[in-house]
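Worked example 3 (structure in, sequence out).
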């Protein structure tokens, strides 16, 4: 019936010229009307209602659901081992149930993988292993702060340097010297590296071999580093004060506009003089500068054109100042020796070394280790023979440093920033000294 109605309407439309969309609208209306007539209730209406299933499309009236968010990545899980005495990289990989192929891939493809060949007892090594048992990533703890992470990439393992940021706290420590600087520092709970650094800071104004006296005092303000509340080591010295033989010396850490770090006195004068007063730490003078000394080996009067510092074999020897190594070699009399030229006028000489750490032509910086104390050549025991020449003439190393050009200073433009930075540190030193009754007079 509906086909018949549609055909009749189409003929009538063509005869009258109705548009097709009007024809379609009319047809739809008639079809809907027909459906309505079929669904009108009759005598057997209840039976018809139960016989026709009601299958409504509910989703057609509900807004589309939001797309599901991806689940978060599972937390990275590291299997960690601590390197034991006698461990090798192969044995560590074997304990982690990894194959020699995994080890070869890391060592042959990862930048800085050479660090893995230098593992030492106490270091932590972490592994991430895939479900298939292959090595996915490897971590090596260099120290409490720095680590290397080797992660599998497309063409091999890639290396990432990871550094933790420790919490920094400042600490003030002080002591009075009764026997030695080391013992005083130990009694005050100051670590060896801090006391050595302090000696280096004051090395241009105090000879810690020759000048230290009983009842000297020191105060040092320095950083301590913590990770998650655990102390992991000391940091930089911020300020220090040393009371020696009626004089007080202060030193403050300062970073200039160019990013260089140095220590300066309260007036802005650099603590780093042109030359150290002594080229090694905390030993004793066995023979001073003496042009008429009786030679201990040949038993004849021969000039002693330097200072002999008696020290255990292996004690580090420092370059007294910046310069260039003009000779590094061995001779029958001098043993292992090093000569360093500083500018045009000055030369320092280091004799009887056990070993040399620099070669001829190398540039060296002040306080850089250039060798180690020994007893090579004409020497009766382990010591360093140290000479200082000015324009080719031997001078007494203990006194010549007082006659050398003055050190650098904080520039005028940076002086306001310097004074502002050290203000609170000066107050701390002054307060601490007053509390302990420290004074230049002892």
């Amino acid at each position: 019936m509906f086909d018949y109605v549609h055909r009749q309407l189409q003929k009538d439309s063509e005869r009258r010229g109705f548009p097709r969309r009007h024809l379609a609208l009319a047809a739809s209306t008639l079809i809907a009307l027909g459906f309505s007539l079929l669904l009108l209730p009759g005598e057997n209406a209840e039976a018809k209602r139960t016989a026709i299933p009601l299958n409504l499309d509910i989703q057609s009236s509900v807004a589309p659901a939001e797309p599901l968010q991806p689940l978060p990545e599972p937390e990275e899980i590291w299997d960690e081992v601590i390197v034991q005495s006698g461990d090798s990289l192969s044995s560590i990989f074997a304990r982690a149930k990894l194959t020699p192929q995994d080890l070869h891939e890391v060592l042959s493809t990862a930048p800085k993988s050479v660090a893995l060949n230098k593992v030492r007892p106490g270091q932590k090594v972490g592994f991430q292993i895939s479900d298939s048992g292959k090595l996915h990533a490897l971590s090596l703890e260099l120290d409490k702060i720095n680590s290397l992470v080797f992660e599998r990439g497309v063409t091999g393992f890639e290396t990432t340097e990871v550094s933790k940021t420790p919490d920094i706290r400042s600490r003030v420590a002080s002591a009075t010297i009764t026997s030695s600087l080391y013992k005083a520092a130990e009694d005050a709970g100051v670590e060896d590296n801090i006391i050595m650094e302090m000696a280096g800071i004051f090395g241009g104004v105090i000879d810690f071999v020759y000048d230290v006296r009983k009842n000297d005092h020191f105060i040092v303000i320095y950083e301590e580093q913590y990770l998650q509340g655990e102390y992991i080591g000391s940091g930089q010295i911020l300020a220090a004060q040393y009371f020696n033989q009626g004089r007080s010396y202060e030193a403050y850490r300062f970073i200039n506009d160019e990013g260089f770090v140095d220590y300066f006195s309260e007036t802005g004068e650099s603590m780093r003089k042109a030359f150290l007063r002594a080229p090694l730490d905390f030993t004793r003078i066995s023979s001073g500068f003496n042009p008429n000394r009786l030679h201990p080996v040949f038993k004849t009067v021969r000039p002693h054109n330097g200072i002999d510092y008696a020290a255990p074999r292996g004690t580090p020897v420092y370059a007294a100042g910046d310069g260039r190594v003009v000779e590094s070699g061995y001779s029958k009399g001098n043993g292992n020796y090093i000569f360093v030229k500083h500018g045009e006028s000055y030369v320092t000489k280091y004799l009887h070394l056990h070993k040399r750490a620099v070669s001829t032509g190398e540039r060296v910086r002040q306080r850089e280790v250039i060798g180690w104390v020994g007893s090579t050549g004409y020497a009766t025991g382990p010591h360093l023979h140290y000479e200082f020449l000015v324009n080719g003439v031997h001078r007494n190393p203990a006194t010549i440093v007082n006659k050398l050009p003055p050190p650098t200073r904080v520039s005028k433009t940076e002086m306001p920033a310097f004074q502002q930075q050290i203000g609170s540190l000066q107050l701390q030193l002054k307060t601490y000294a007053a509390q302990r009754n420290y004074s230049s007079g002892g």
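Notes: The longest helix spans residues 415-435. The radius of gyration is 42 Å.
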